[in-house]
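Structure first, sequence second, as always.
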């Protein structure tokens, strides 16, 4: 149904007609992505699953066949493969938390990291392949003794940060280590919390936000409360920012946390629409500015599952911020809530009772696309009036980009 409350007076004016757009989506049972026209479901292109640049002009992918992996760079607009390289072994681009899109490309775009995806991967050894984006030199294979996962790359690709899973309590105990890419060796010591509280890090990653200044913010589900692990990938230190512990024991609800930057980059918002929590974080002094609680729509009984010239609109699994900075949209198991960024007050709700897997907002802020878990359908919402229309088709399980026409 339509939004339950009136839109804020400073919200952007909705266009006379809902904005059409190109949506980058995935469908259940298919490995790659599709570019579709939202109004008709016409397939414009097919894309491999990979790491796209900020404007979806190119996408880097890794595909494996018969113990060989090909790394390719696709120019999306022309649908032509540029540079490519085939290396020995079965490798894939890493992923963090429940994000459907992989990561593994450095901030400067010049370094690619792959993780071992062979059937016998693990067994006390963790392997990473570091490849130059030029795809003109053999990969550097890094082998680490122990259970390690990809965490982040420094902007210049010289340092690989990995999460080392510890076999000792507490549950989910981990520590972050730094690897010198040039030598392939671990640095001495671990990346400790700069607050110096001595507590063991323990939790499971839910979402990650990478900033141009080299900071990487990873939201973890902890035993007692969620927290944001803020890593300076340039200087090699970290700080943990605690979030409210409400609903910490609700595993499904804990997965509904999302991270998004404000339009001006001066704030980071952590929002959980299922738990009714919104937190504003100062990305400079790494502290919580404000916390707000709000009523959430009743949840439906459902099991939660987890190109090149114009800037795309904001997309997120759980939360997006309007380009003008005035509004947040947060999704959860009971629908979507609209939140005023200046007050963290709820100003409206959409699709009450529907579990939402992802959101995409047009750059004019007038149209919001929501991926509904049940049936994998995508609903187009007018953010001013709350009017709904369904994108033709169904069975979608990813909504990862929106490109203006």
């Amino acid at each position: 149904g339509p939004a339950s409350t009136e839109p804020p007076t400073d919200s952007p004016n909705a266009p006379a007609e809902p904005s059409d757009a190109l949506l980058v989506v995935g469908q259940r049972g298919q490995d790659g992505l599709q570019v579709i026209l939202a109004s008709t479901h016409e397939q414009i292109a097919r894309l491999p699953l990979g790491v796209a640049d900020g404007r979806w002009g190119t996408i880097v992918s890794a595909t494996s066949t018969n113990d060989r992996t090909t790394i390719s760079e696709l120019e999306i607009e022309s649908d032509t493969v540029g540079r490519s390289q085939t290396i020995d072994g079965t490798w894939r681009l890493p992923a963090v938390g429940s994000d459907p899109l992989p990561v593994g490309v450095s901030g400067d775009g010049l370094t690619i990291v792959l993780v071992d995806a062979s059937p016998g991967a693990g067994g006390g050894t963790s392997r990473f392949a570091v490849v130059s984006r030029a795809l003109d030199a053999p990969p550097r294979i890094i082998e680490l003794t122990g259970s390690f996962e990809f965490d982040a790359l420094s902007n210049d690709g010289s340092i690989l940060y990995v999460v080392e899973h510890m076999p000792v309590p507490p549950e989910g105990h981990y520590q972050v280590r730094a690897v010198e890419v040039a030598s392939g060796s671990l640095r001495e010591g671990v990346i400790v919390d700069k607050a110096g509280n001595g507590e063991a890090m323990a939790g499971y990653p839910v979402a990650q936000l990478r900033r141009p200044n080299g900071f990487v913010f990873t939201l973890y589900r902890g035993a007692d409360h969620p927290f944001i692990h803020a890593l300076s990938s340039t200087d090699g230190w970290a700080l943990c920012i605690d979030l409210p512990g409400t609903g910490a024991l609700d595993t499904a609800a804990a997965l509904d946390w999302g991270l998004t930057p404000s339009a001006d980059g001066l704030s980071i918002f952590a929002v959980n629409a299922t738990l009714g929590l919104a937190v504003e974080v100062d990305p400079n002094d790494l502290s919580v500015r404000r916390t707000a609680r709000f009523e959430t729509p009743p949840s439906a009984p459902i099991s939660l599952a987890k190109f090149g010239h114009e800037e795309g609109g904001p997309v997120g699994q759980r939360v997006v911020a309007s380009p003008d900075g005035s509004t947040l949209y947060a999704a959860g198991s009971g629908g979507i809530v609209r939140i005023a960024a200046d007050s963290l007050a709820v100003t409206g709700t959409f699709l009450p009772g529907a579990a939402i897997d992802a959101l995409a907002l047009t750059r004019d802020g007038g149209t919001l696309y929501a991926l509904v878990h049940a049936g994998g359908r995508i609903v187009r919402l007018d953010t001013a009036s709350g009017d709904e229309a369904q994108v033709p088709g169904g069975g979608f399980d990813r909504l990862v980009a929106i490109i203006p026409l």
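Margin note: Residues 4-16, 300-306 have pLDDT under 50 and may be disordered.
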